[in-house]
């Protein structure tokens, strides 16, 4: 029996997400009993990437519109990176709405690599301590965040990491935050 049974984690992504930044955390969450729900712009399967090479297609469970209509069904949010994914997803108003709803409700949010662009566009990073892929540090600082170069940063219920190499530490920190929030 997992420590995260009965938790629903929304994973937001569009084509071009860094595959391991979704599959690594998803596997760890599911191993602890959490239910993961892939949320995207459309219901068509989305394409993961292995850096600059196409990866696998993943079935989508809900659209941003559907998820934003009932954000209370989710206990947490996971935002993988990938430059193409992160650049597009930040332009979806319903994805931004879902992010703001999770922050407003004080629910855990985990973001890795370029995924922080969606948080910036959603207006939720001001006053937060976090990390990201190094090229986002100016964007985060300009949006009011304190950027640090660390494997994983936990600021309340916000967990952030820099890159795929950080996934083991990212997974451990996110699971600890989810376990604490569940109590």
UniProtKB/TrEMBL annotation:
Organism of origin: Achromobacter kerstersii
Domain DJ-1/PfpI: 9-176
Gene behind the chain: yhbO_1
SUPFAM superfamilies: Class I glutamine amidotransferase-like
PANTHER family cross-referenced by the UniProt entry: DJ-1 PROTEIN (PTHR42733), PROTEINASE (PTHR42733:SF12)
Enzyme class: hydrolase
Database matches in PROSITE patterns: PEPTIDASE_C56_PFPI
Database matches in InterPro entries: C56_PfpI-like, Class_I_gatase-like, DJ-1/PfpI
GO molecular function, one term: hydrolase activity
Family matches, as NCBIfam families: PfpI
Protein name per UniProt: Protein/nucleic acid deglycase 2
Record flagged with keyword Isomerase: no
Family matches, as CDD domains: GATase1_PfpI_like
Gene3D superfamilies: 3.40.50.880
EC number(s) recorded for this UniProt protein: 3.1.2.-
């Amino acid at each position: 029996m997992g420590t995260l049974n009965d938790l629903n984690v929304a994973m937001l992504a569009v084509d071009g997400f860094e595959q391991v930044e979704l599959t690594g955390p998803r596997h760890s969450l599911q191993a602890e009993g959490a239910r993961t729900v892939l949320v995207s712009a459309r219901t068509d399967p989305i394409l993961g990437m292995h850096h600059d090479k196409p990866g696998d297609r993943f079935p989508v469970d809900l659209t941003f519109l559907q998820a934003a209509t009932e954000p209370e069904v989710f206990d947490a949010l996971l935002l993988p990176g990938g430059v193409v994914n992160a650049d597009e997803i930040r332009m979806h108003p319903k994805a931004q709405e879902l992010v703001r709803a999770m922050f407003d409700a004080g629910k855990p949010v985990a973001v890795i690599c370029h995924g922080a662009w969606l948080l910036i566009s959603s207006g939720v990073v001001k006053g937060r301590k976090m990390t990201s892929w190094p090229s986002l540090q100016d964007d985060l600082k300009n949006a009011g965040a304190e950027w640090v170069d660390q494997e994983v940063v936990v600021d309340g219920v916000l967990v952030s990491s820099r890159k795929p190499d950080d996934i083991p530490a990212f997974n451990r920190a996110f699971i600890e935050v989810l376990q604490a929030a569940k109590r």
